[in-house]
Amino acid sequence: MEPLVEPKPTTAGTLAATQDLFTNFYTFEGVVRALNGVSVVIRHGETYGLVGESGCGKSVTVRSLMRIVQAPGRIDSGKILLFLNEANRTRGIEIVDRTEAYMESIRGCDISMIFQEPGAALNPVMSVLDQVGESYRFHRMQQMIDETLARLQESRSAMRPADPRRALRRLQAALLRAERAGYARYAARVARIDNELYQLEDRQDEKARDRKRSLNHARDRTWPHGGGASVARRVPILRRYRRPLDAIIRGHVVELLRSLGIPNPENVVQRYPHELSGGMQQRIVIAMALACHPTLLVADEPTSNLDVTIQAQIVELIKELKRTSISSVLFITHDLGLVAEVCDRVTVMYAGDVSETASVRELFREPLHPYTVGLLASVPKAEQQEELSMIPGAVPNLIRPPQGCRFHPRCPKRMEICEREKPATVEHEPGHWVACHLYPGNGRSAQ
Amino acid sequence: MSRTLVDVRSLKKYYPVTGGVFRRRIADVRAVDGVDLSLDRGECLGLVGESGCGKTTLGKTILRLHTATDGRIYFGQDPAQVESVEAMLRSTDPAERTRGRTLSRTMDLNRMKGRALLALRQKIQVVFQDPTNSLDPRMLVKNIVAEPLTAQKLVSAREVESRVLELLGIVGLTSDHLMRYPHEFSGGQRQRIAIARALATSPEFILMDEPTSALDVSVQAQILNLLKKLQAEFHLTYLFVTHHLLVVKYISNRIAVMYLGKIVELGPTADIFARPLHPYTRALLSAIPVPDPDTKREKIILSGDVPNPINPPAGCRFHPRCRHAREICRTMEPPLEKADSGGRTVACHRWREI
């Protein structure tokens, strides 16, 4: 079957898209077919929701998107496209085949993630300062060295010409400049490799494949060593030349925590995760994700382990950040109430399939897919009087998923065709996509 | 038979915090700090609050899985007798108080021993939060459900299996499931097994300790409907502990809101949702995300976290987070007082004004 993709990912404004993604987990009991051809599109400037029950593949989808699917999981086929900046906005960057080093340069910088359980996402033996500051160290070293050099210049020109500290300052500046040069060389080399890979992306011939492989190897081997300062960085006394960098990082982190509404950030940065409450830990995780001003913030059930009052605080914070500093948010949750409150567009997933995609209003007003209808009806409402309606049965085992439409064993509107054929995703109304045999395509399904 | 089934009087549960070389008791975690609560037969009382507010501890203390530090729990006692004993305990005469204590020994679940306790255990059951942890992974479903029956020696060995089958049927499982282990079931089915086990001794009272919070929404609806059906069928009394307010709204007749070891508001479900009186209840209710994109409500966002129960704030425990706090809230602890004729009580100095 020809893979059917939701809107064309080249539509203006797309930020990230997956096309017909299959991710499988090769476990001892068998192959868990976690994603069964998932296509989603996240646009610039929107809050996009991914809802579904546990095991429906929503977390696996974003983990694939970030390329952090853990073994024994593997992305087996499909495309993941990123349209991060003007240069690649027309065609997008395909990241399934990119190197780990390339992904590292994107993760935490352009796309970053808030994990579900703050207690598990934070490293217990690193202080808050080190954890939040890590992003700056990793992605922003060059800028910070520039900043430090400017400050050194200033303080040196304020000194008397005979001051002996001037010589020390000069040495410090020299080492920093050497390190800076190392980073610049690294950046240039990486940019060259990435550029060539981007050019080769669509070519499938033998020669191009070999070249791609060797470029990927070269990319992995490249590392920002300290340039001329690499020795000094390892000698305890000389290492002090980097102290101004630490001060800058500390300043950035304190400022960031303050902007997230954490009281007394100077004190909090010295603490370790276990000393903080759950809500505070989640704020630290958010701070880590926000450190480098990502274009896309992925929030994987950011509030599911928190109390309602703390949840309200965190949700309010994410909404505020969406208004002020980040372009798009990918919000994963199983709570339909939160979806209604936070998201612009939603995708409902079931057992590794995309069931329905629509704007929030549309989805709640007129759900099309029987699963969405059942899901919405089984949430207790504020004015619930009559008996809760429910979906019979349970989520299927994905080692042996049902044939055809994966929802058919639980579906109240099951037809004969559902057991045989996987339904295509069709645009039932403009912007409202659904994958169900009840809604046969009317010509708008294929692209 | 009296209307009241469970009557809890000024119940306290403190956990000691030890320190120093000799592990001396240096402080107490006041998990439950003076709770009065009564449950009528056949009702479902929802107990809501944030994590760490003591709702689970209160439930487990009522079951006597924990022994209370202080206070009395009367289960199925004659209310007139309970009142007379309570009156004795309150009296100023020390001899009278001693007499009250002696009398209450046979009535107070918290001080019962031996056979009397065993007999009561049969009437009190529990369903825990996470069925993955509350079912023994090395026992067959058959034995899990039969265990209360054999422990209480309720049926002869011959009849056990038919009773187990009957119980499984009640919760919607079949004889196919008898010879399986818990790991072979989905979360919802596991919770059904746990419910069957709780029903085995034909209890009068079941503590539901967040029975649906580990389940998915579609399965949660199944379990909630099952619990409602069982309650009507067997005339059960539930204490439903949860932090999910819409679930409580669906299943409970009355709601008790807890904050830091104390009940701050108690009343009929519809009344509380229609007109919450305590500022904390208001904040809780306004924080519920409503599954409807068109309703835009004004939210009350509480600042800060729940304070440490080792050293709770003086006066009203909610005052550091309350936007209506006045001088009196900082110094004097508000008593739980009657707010209307509908059985609503609230612990706030200023509920009339705000």
Short description:
Chain A is of the alpha/beta class.
Tell me about this structure.
The complex is a heterodimer of chains A (447) and B (354). Helix content of chain A is 38%, strand content 17%. Chain A is α/β, with parallel strands linked by helices and 447 residues long. With 354 residues, chain B is α/β, with parallel strands linked by helices. Chain B is 35% helix and 21% strand.
Can you give keywords for this protein?
heterodimer; A: about 450 residues; alpha/beta; eight-stranded mixed β-sheet; five-stranded antiparallel β-sheet; 14 helices; 13 strands; about 40% helix; globular; disordered N terminus; B: about 350 residues; three-stranded antiparallel β-sheet; 13 helices; 11 strands; about 20% strand
Q: What is the mean predicted local confidence, pLDDT of chain A?
A: 85
- Main beta-sheet strand count, sense and barrel state of chain B: 8 strands, mixed
Amount of beta strand of chain A: 15-25%
Order of helices and strands of chain B: EEEHEHHHEHHHHEHEHEEHHHEE
Helical proportion of chain B, percent range: 25-40%
Helix content estimate of chain A: 25-40%
Radius of gyration of chain B: 22 Å
Per-chain topology:
The complex is a heterodimer of chains A (about 450) and B (about 350).
Chain A: E1 14-26, E2 31-33, E3 38-43, E4 47-51, H1 58-65, E5 73-82, E6 93-94, H2 100-106, E7 111-114, H3 118-121, H4 128-139, H5 141-157, H6 165-200, H7 206-221, H8 243-259, H9 265-268, H10 278-290, E8 296-300, H11 308-324, E9 328-333, H12 336-342, E10 345-350, E11 353-359, H13 360-365, H14 370-377, E12 425-429, E13 432-435
Parallel strand pairs in A: 4-9, 4-10, 7-8, 8-9
Antiparallel strand pairs in A: 1-2, 1-3, 1-5, 5-6, 10-11, 11-13, 12-13
Chain B: E1 4-19, E2 24-40, E3 44-48, H1 55-62, E4 70-75, H2 79-90, H3 94-104, H4 114-121, E5 124-127, H5 131-134, H6 141-151, H7 157-170, H8 187-199, E6 205-209, H9 217-234, E7 237-242, H10 245-251, E8 254-259, E9 262-268, H11 269-274, H12 279-286, H13 327-331, E10 337-338, E11 345-346
Parallel strand pairs in B: 3-7, 3-8, 5-6, 6-7
Antiparallel strand pairs in B: 1-2, 1-4, 8-9, 9-11, 10-11
Helix pairs in contact in B: 2-3, 6-7, 6-8, 7-8, 8-9
